Amino acid sequence: MKILHIVREKGHELALSTALSQSINEGIQKVTVLLIHDAVLTNKDSAALLGGMEVFALKDDVEARGVKASYPLLDYEGMLRLIFESDKVITW
């Protein structure tokens, strides 16, 4: 099963800890986190919970906030691809 967590708030602890919990569950194949809106301000130092998960940030939101990207960037097409490739999408 592929699960995508779309996080909208910076440092959303419940979202990040839930994604981490699912990522270490042997029954789940892949957990991905997509940071949008103010969540793109979550940097690698403050998000130790993200561990070895695949994490992306939405390019337009990073540029709108004028910050340096801490994660690989996706455009809207890439975001849609992630959504449609996932079995389950959770938006926080």
Task: Break the fold down into its secondary structure elements and pairings.
Blueprint (H helix, E strand, L loop, with lengths): L1 E6 L5 H11 L6 E6 L18 E5 H7 L7 E2 L1 H10 L2 E4 L1
Parallel strand pairs: 1-2, 1-5, 2-3, 3-4
Describe this structure in words.
With 92 residues, this protein is α/β, with parallel strands linked by helices. It has one domain (2-91): DsrEFH-like (Hypothetical Protein Ychn, Chain: A), CATH 3.40.1260. 30% of the residues lie in helices and 25% in strands. It contains 3 helices and 5 strands. It has helices at 13-23, 59-65, 76-85; strands at residues 2-7, 30-35, 54-58, 73-74, 88-91. A 5-stranded parallel beta sheet has the order 4-3-2-1-5. Helix 2 (59-65) links the parallel strand 3 and strand 4. The protein is globular, with a radius of gyration of 12 Å. The two termini are 19 Å apart.
Please outline what is shown here:
The chain has 92 residues and is an alpha/beta fold.
Beta-strand proportion: 25-35%
Instruction: Tell me what the CATH architecture is.
Output: 3-Layer(aba) Sandwich
Could you please say which CATH topology applies here?
Answer: Hypothetical Protein Ychn, Chain: A
Shape category: globular
How many separate structural domains? 1
- Chain oligomer state: single chain
Strand segment tally: 5
Just give the CATH class. Alpha Beta
The string of secondary-structure elements, in order, is: EHEEHEHE
State the separation between the terminal residues, measured CA to CA. Answer: 19 Å
State the secondary-structure class.
Answer: alpha/beta
Helix content bin: 25-40%
The helix tally amounts to: 3
Question: What's the gyration radius in Å?
Answer: 12 Å
Q: pLDDT below 50 for ≥5 consecutive residues: which ranges?
A: none
Supply the CATH superfamily name: DsrEFH-like
The profile of the biggest β sheet is: 5 strands, parallel
For the largest sheet, list the strands in their spatial order. Answer: 4-3-2-1-5
Give average pLDDT, whole number. Answer: 88
